[in-house]
Amino acid sequence: MNFRFKALGIHLLASASALTLLLGSLYFGWYHWPGWYLTDVAPVVLVMAGVDVVIGPLLTFVVARPDKPRRELKRDVGMIVAVQLTALLYGGASLRSGRPLYYAFSENVLQLVQAYDIDSAQSALALQQNAQFAPHWYSLPRWISAPLPQNTDERAKIVSSAIGGGDDVISMPRYFKRWEDGLPALRGKLKKVDEVAYFSPADKKALKEQLKAAGLDPNQPNSMPFIGRGRPLLAVFDTTALTVTGLFKGK
Q1: Are the beta carbons of 207 and 141 closer than 8 angstroms?
Q2: pTM (2 decimals)?
Q3: CB 227: neighbour CB atoms within 10 A?
């Protein structure tokens, strides 16, 4: 039994270290707050953790009999490790393809833009027409403005596409502008907590309590929804400097 527990401990330590290194790199590179919350990647991470730090070490505990020939034991553990590495690489690739690239103000909301929201054709157009905002493999999240184009025909095409479930302006980096350029329009879209969409009455009640606890006035037009794949956040702004003073979760 001591032999099995030793094998379990070694395997658990190695698996946890590999998972921590991968998730830590992704978190500090792309997924730090609010990326982790808005992308709703918890299910993917739980599957990765289940395979790599639970199932893998437990299978090693089962197969690691002290009387088993070492060659057979190495083969069995090697097969377990191969499955773990496959799950780890697949999960890591999924997280990387969904990494946050932009936090965009567009029309009347803040929106998360992930890597897989922008296809290769849109990336190529951005490189030709608006290179400073084109995404790259090394791009880190940045705050930008994503207004609809002034050209009436282009604007209508994008709106029609978005309504039909196709590309929206937030997946077209050739139209992106600096965050500062969108602040005048953003100011006019700020609302009181009770007027903000995407939140239930219970959420709004909890949000108002949080704002009061933080010394912020929920009855001032200083808020905007911040949406992604998961539950939305409430972004609260300093109405003078138009800087984000806090991001708050609903109930």
Answers
A1: no
A2: 0.87
A3: 16
Q: Closest Cα to residue 83, out of 110, 48, 111? A: 48
- How many structural domains comprise the chain? 3
Residue that is last in its domain, among 97, 114, 144: 97
| Residue given tokens 């780890």 in the structure block | 88
Average pLDDT on 23-30 reads 91
| pLDDT tens per residue across span 191-218 | 999 999 999 999 999 999 999 999 999 9
Same domain, 84 and 126: no
User: Using CA atoms, how far apart are residues 250 and 231, in angstroms rounded to an integer?
Assistant: 8
Amino acid identity of residue 198, one-letter, is Y
Query: Which range marks the domain in which residue 11 is found?
Result: 2-97
Report the C-alpha gap between 83 and 77 in whole angstroms.
10
> Helix 42-49 vs helix 2-26: angle between axes, to the nearest 10 degrees?
150
Strand order in the sheet with 100-106: 177-178, 142-145, 100-106, 109-114, 223-227, 233-237, 244-249
Nearest partner of 220 among 241, 240, 239, judged by Cα: 239
Q: Which residues contact 225 (CB under 8 A, 6 or more apart)?
A: 109, 110, 196, 197, 198, 199, 232, 233, 234, 235
According to the model, what pLDDT value does residue 2 have? 83
